[in-house]
Structure formats: structure tokens, C-alpha cells
């Protein structure tokens, strides 16, 4: 026991109550009764008590009490627990089906919250992007890891950063990145070929990184089905590294080569930071609401994150300084235009120093650094998960896979340019359809900066029998935007909206969706849409082009139960193998030349 606790409790030490408390305490880990932890518990307890007593007040101040919504189960947690448990978006979808496109909820401490899949309401929020901020817990979680880059900057700061970063993702610049997307995809294809030839033995396949074999090689039925020219492969593991390597080269002209090697200092640190964001623990959850806990309760995980952030900051800072020197040389004519770097970081520094940007609008070094980490974070897991869902859909829809194979295998070039890649209509429809049905980001949250009135597409019957024509919302109310629900809505895509059918994109949708890409909300819309959406779509198309020409994807006969978990991005895991983290295991089979 801590000496402080001993002194406080000494006078009580004979009582039965104290004996009972002592036995409970002895069963707890030592750190939980450390004086610092006691202070933290006291703060948490006080906050919980205040929130509990404020609950009736919170409810009374709600300006949309008559809006239908599910009954409140917990005074303190509101609907927060129910919302986050289970398959991403399912609970919210059920509530929308039952109560309508805009639903009344309550958040932590009973604070009123809204859930919406109404395209009029969402359109309004996205069009007035700067009147609706991201919730503070998002910046509490991501700020210390990524720096204050585009993903979490707000208001004037965001507008200024966006103005500098936007030109970097123009179609002309994404075109320049095509060779990177294709070359890295060919590296992956070679690895799969070598692994299949060596029956899954990474050493025999000549791979330096040995953690590539699927965590479990598969059942007897899987092995038999794989045969001589196939192998059970956890495709997601490869897509994660593919996306990271692409971002390394396209992002900063730095080849992490994490596909082939496992000892790159910078890529390992980025990976650990990303893993830290994705492995949400109860303490981490509390830290996002009460950042002070990070200092009060030091953890091993926290220490590791601090070390990794130090490494990424140091390494990225070196890169930024090198790039700045090179760009100064370009401007002074020492470097010829052909020698100019075309990676995102160089483009960003050029954009930041261009005469078109006013001095007071330029990003400082810290902000430039924050963009680099932000782009790696925002562009990594999202795209790799999208590719994981894509091969899963191909495996389960052989007719789609065959049609795609016919298109990509008949293309005469191995290295199509940007325009050629975009001229393949079926590839376009497949990628579009995967991003619709399996949107990697299923929902987001916005919080109005001032009281506002939200429009709705049609009046809603209130619980008091009166029609609601619009919704008055107080500053600070959390509004959940249901990206996945809107993407799969029969009102937008017809009665078969939940089915995977690339050909649906031959006909116009029934309703307009306020998204930046393809009548979908997958990349959101408005001032804070996904700045990397062209990059992501082109990368997914390039990887699919390369892989679908050389391999066939098949489901495993053992049918491992794949479930989706929600941690910023929805990620597939095998239910019975959750200890291995996200996976998308499939049989990957080599295509034969005469297969058409
Ligand atoms: C399939 C892949 C991707 C999906 C589904 C996706 C989706 C999204 C979504 C939904 C948002 C809005 C989040 C919010 O405001 O709550 C977003 C923002 C963002 N994305 Fe992506 N993204 C993808 C790939 C990328 C890539 C490849 C990059 C960069 C290389 C990127 C960079 C960003 C950045 C910087 C933001 C913040 C933009 C801002 O607030 O101004 N994303 N993304």
C-alpha cells in the first residue's frame, strides 16, 4: 500500500468495513492505488457525479425533445455505449430505420445529440463547414500524435492550411504519382507469386520481413482448395504495407520499403503511432475526454507513443529541411526542372513558398511537419482497408471478378498512364461500388459552433403529435453523420442498395448526395472533404489493375467469420482470431496466360 494511503486510513484500520475495503484493494493492481491514481479517480468520480446530477438539466435544455428517438438506457452514458458496441453503424442504422432520418439521442452525461442520414441536413452541415467543428475528443486523441495538421485544425487555421495543401492533390499532381502506385503494386504482385511458389514460406520466398505468412496457414480444406498455384494469404497485411510504401515514396520521396523490409525506423514508428490510435482502451477513451489523465496516469503505451512521436518528428524534420534546401536550389536555378522532386512534401513546400500565398498565410515548419504525419495517418489505413474489402468482394462475386479480369487483362500495357487507367469503365465501377457499400469511414461527428436551425428533407411527426419542419440545435450538440447508411440507402440507389453491383453505376442515382466523389459520402463533402480522394481512388484502381491481371481471389472453404470493428476506420477481423488484429484472409491464386 502507498504510505500516503496508510497514513490516511490508519485510524480506521480496525473496522470491518476497512477490512473489506482492504481485501478489495489487495485484489487491484498496485498502480490503481498510487497517490497519483487516487487523485485521478477522485477527479473522474467528481466529473461523473456532476454529469449525473446535470443530466436532468441537460435533458431540459434539449431543443428537440419531441423528435423521435430510442429510450435512454443510462443516465450517465446516454446512448454512447450502445452506439459503439457491435458491427459499425448497425445500431445507428436500426434507429434510423425505426425513428426516421433524423433521430434524437443522448450522449455522455445525458447531453442531447442527433443522428442523421438525411441528405438535406447533411448537405447543410457540409456546406456550412466552418460553422460545424469536429468534436474536441478528436483533437485530444490525434493532436499529440499527429500534430495540428489538416485533420484537426479548425476555422481560420484550417482554411489557411487547406489553401496551401489543396494544390498538391490536383489531378495534374496525382497523375505524376501513377508510376509510384503501379511500381509498388508490382512489388506486391512479385511477393505473392514468390510466396505461392514457396508454399507460404517467407524465407524460401526470399523475403527479408518474415511476418508475412497468414497467422494461421488454414484448415486442411483450405490447403486442399489452394492447391499448387494458390495460397491462403492475409491480404490486408500486404495492403497496409503497400499503402504505407506508396505514401512514403509519393509523400516524401522516402522509400520505407516496408513490403520487403521490417526495420525502417520511420515506418516502424508511424506504424506504432497508427496502432496506438486504433487500439482503443478504456483509459485511452477517458484520455480523449480528459487529456490531463495522460500526465496523471503514466502508462507503458503512453511512453511508447511519446518515443515514437519523437522519432517521427526528428526524421520528418530532417526530410523537411532537406526538401527546403533542394527547393531553394530549384529557385536559384541550380536544379534543372527535370530533377525537381514531385513528391507531396516537395509540392507542399513549393506551394507554401509560392508568391501566390501571402506571408501571413504560410505554414510554419511545425505545420508542414504536421501535414506529413496527417497525410500518412489519413491515407494509410483508409486505402488499405478499401483494398481489403475490394478483394473480398471479388472473391465472393466471381462473375464480377471475371468481367474485371477480361477488361484489365486485355489492356495492352503493363504501365497505363492516368488517363488510360481512368478509361477502363468496369474497373471504375468496381472501385466506385466498393467505396459505396464498404466505405472505410462509416460515420463522422460535427458540433455546431453556435445555435442553429437545421433543415430536413421532409417534416417529421413529433412525439407530441405536432409536425417538426426544421430542428433547432444548441451550440455544442454532437451530430452523428451516417456516411455508411446514406451510401447504402434505397432512396438513393434503389431497392437493391445493399447489394454489391458495380453495374448500378450505369444508371443515375435516385437522389443527389452532397459528397465530393461519385454521389457517395465516403470522402464527405464541403470545405472539409477528403483532400486525398483522387489520390486514394487512383491508388486503388492502380493496385486492382495490377493484382486482378495476375491473381484470382477466392473465399476460404473454412469460411472464417469476418466481422467488422470500428476504430476511426471500420476494419475486418476474423472473429476467432482477434488476437492477430485486422485480417482479410483469402485464397490468392495465380492466373494462367491462357485463362480467358
Ligand atoms: C479510401 C480511402 C480514403 C477514405 C475512405 C477517406 C475518407 C475521408 C473522410 C470521410 C474524411 C473526412 C473526415 C471528417 O471530416 O470527419 C477524410 C478527410 C481527410 N483525408 Fe481522407 N480518405 C481516404 C484516403 C485519403 C488519402 C489517400 C489521403 C492523403 C494522402 C487522405 C487525406 C485526408 C485528409 C488530410 C483529410 C482531412 C481533410 C480536412 O479536414 O481538410 N485521405 N478522408
TrEMBL record:
Belongs to the cytochrome P450 family. The chain crosses the membrane at residues 39-57. It comes from Vanrija albida. The lineage of its organism: Eukaryota, Fungi, Dikarya, Basidiomycota, Agaricomycotina. PANTHER family: CYTOCHROME P450 (PTHR24305), CYTOCHROME P450 12A4, MITOCHONDRIAL-RELATED (PTHR24305:SF166). Coiled coil: none annotated. This is Cytochrome P450. Pathway: Secondary metabolite biosynthesis. Its cofactor is heme. It comes from the Eukaryota. Keywords: Heme, Iron, Membrane, Metal-binding, Monooxygenase, Oxidoreductase, Transmembrane, Transmembrane helix. The keyword Transmembrane applies. Pfam families: p450.
Amino acid at each position: 500500500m502507498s504510505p500516503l494511503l496508510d497514513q490516511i486510513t490508519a485510524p480506521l484500520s480496525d473496522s470491518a468495513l476497512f477490512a473489506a475495503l482492504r481485501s478489495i484493494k489487495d485484489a487491484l493492481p498496485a498502480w490503481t492505488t498510487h497517490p497519483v491514481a487516487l487523485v485521478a479517480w477522485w477527479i473522474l468520480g467528481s466529473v461523473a457525479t456532476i454529469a449525473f446530477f446535470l443530466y436532468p438539466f441537460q435533458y431540459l435544455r434539449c431543443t428537440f425533445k419531441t423528435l423521435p428517438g430510442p429510450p435512454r438506457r443510462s443516465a450517465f452514458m446516454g446512448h454512447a455505449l450502445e452506439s459503439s458496441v457491435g458491427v459499425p453503424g448497425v445500431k445507428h442504422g436500426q434507429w434510423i430505420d425505426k425513428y426516421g432520418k433524423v433521430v434524437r439521442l443522448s450522449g455522455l452525461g445525458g447531453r442531447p445529440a442527433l443522428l442523421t442520414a438525411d441528405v438535406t441536413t447533411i448537405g447543410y452541415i457540409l456546406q456550412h463547414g466552418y460553422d460545424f467543428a469536429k468534436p474536441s475528443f478528436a483533437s485530444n486523441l490525434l493532436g499529440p500524435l499527429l500534430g495540428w495538421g489538416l485533420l484537426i485544425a479548425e476555422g481560420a487555421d484550417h482554411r489557411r492550411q487547406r489553401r496551401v495543401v489543396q494544390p498538391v492533390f490536383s489531378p495534374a499532381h496525382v497523375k505524376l504519382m501513377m508510376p509510384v502506385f503501379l511500381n509498388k503494386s508490382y512489388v506486391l504482385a512479385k511477393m505473392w507469386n514468390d510466396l505461392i511458389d514457396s508454399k507460404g514460406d517467407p524465407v524460401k520466398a526470399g523475403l527479408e520481413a518474415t511476418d508475412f505468412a497468414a497467422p494461421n496457414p488454414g484448415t486442411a480444406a483450405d490447403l486442399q482448395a489452394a492447391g499448387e498455384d494458390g495460397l491462403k494469404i492475409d491480404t490486408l497485411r500486404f495492403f497496409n504495407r503497400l499503402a504505407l510504401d506508396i505514401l512514403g515514396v509519393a509523400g516524401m520521396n522516402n522509400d520505407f520499403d516496408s513490403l520487403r523490409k521490417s526495420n525502417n525506423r520511420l515506418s516502424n514508428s508511424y506504424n506504432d503511432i497508427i496502432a496506438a490510435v486504433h487500439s482503443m482502451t478504456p483509459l485511452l477513451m477517458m484520455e480523449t475526454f480528459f487529456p490531463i489523465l495522460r500526465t496523471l496516469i503514466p502508462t507503458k503505451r503512453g511512453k511508447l507513443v511519446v518515443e515514437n512521436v519523437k522519432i517521427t518528428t526528428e526524421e520528418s524534420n530532417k526530410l523537411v529541411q532537406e526538401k527546403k534546401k533542394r527547393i531553394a536550389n530549384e529557385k536559384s536555378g541550380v536544379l534543372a526542372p527535370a530533377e525537381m522532386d514531385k513528391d507531396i512534401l516537395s509540392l507542399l513546400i513549393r506551394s507554401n513558398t509560392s508568391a501566390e500565398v501571402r506571408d501571413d498565410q504560410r505554414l510554419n515548419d511545425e505545420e508542414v511537419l504536421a501535414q506529413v504525419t496527417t497525410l500518412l495517418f489519413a491515407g494509410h489505413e483508409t486505402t488499405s482497408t478499401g483494398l481489403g474489402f475490394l478483394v473480398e468482394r471479388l472473391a465472393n462475386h466471381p462473375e464480377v471478378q471475371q468481367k474485371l479480369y477480361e477488361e484489365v487483362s486485355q489492356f495492352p500495357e503493363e504501365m497505363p498512364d492516368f488517363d488510360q487507367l481512368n478509361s477502363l469503365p468496369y474497373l471504375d465501377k468496381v472501385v466506385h461500388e466498393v467505396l459505396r457499400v464498404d466505405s472505410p469511414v462509416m460515420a463522422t461527428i460535427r458540433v455546431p459552433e453556435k445555435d442553429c436551425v437545421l433543415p430536413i428533407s421532409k417534416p417529421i411527426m413529433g412525439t407530441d403529435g405536432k409536425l417538426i419542419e426544421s430542428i433547432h440545435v444548441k451550440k455544442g450538440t454532437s451530430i452523428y453523420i451516417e456516411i455508411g447508411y446514406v451510401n447504402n440507402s434505397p432512396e438513393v440507389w434503389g431497392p437493391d442498395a445493399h447489394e454489391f453491383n458495380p453495374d448500378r453505376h450505369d444508371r443515375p442515382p435516385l437522389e443527389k448526395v452532397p459528397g465530393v466523389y461519385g454521389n457517395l459520402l465516403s470522402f464527405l463533402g464541403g470545405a472539409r472533404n477528403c483532400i486525398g480522394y483522387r489520390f486514394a481512388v487512383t491508388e486503388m484502381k492502380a493496385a486492382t489493375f495490377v493484382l486482378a491481371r495476375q491473381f484470382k481471389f477466392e473465399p476460404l472453404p473454412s469460411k472464417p467469420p469476418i466481422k467488422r470493428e470500428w476504430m476511426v476506420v471500420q476494419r475486418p477481423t476474423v472473429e476467432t482470431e482477434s488476437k492477430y488484429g485486422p485480417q482479410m484472409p483469402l485464397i490468392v491464386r495465380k492466373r494462367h496466360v491462357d485463362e480467358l
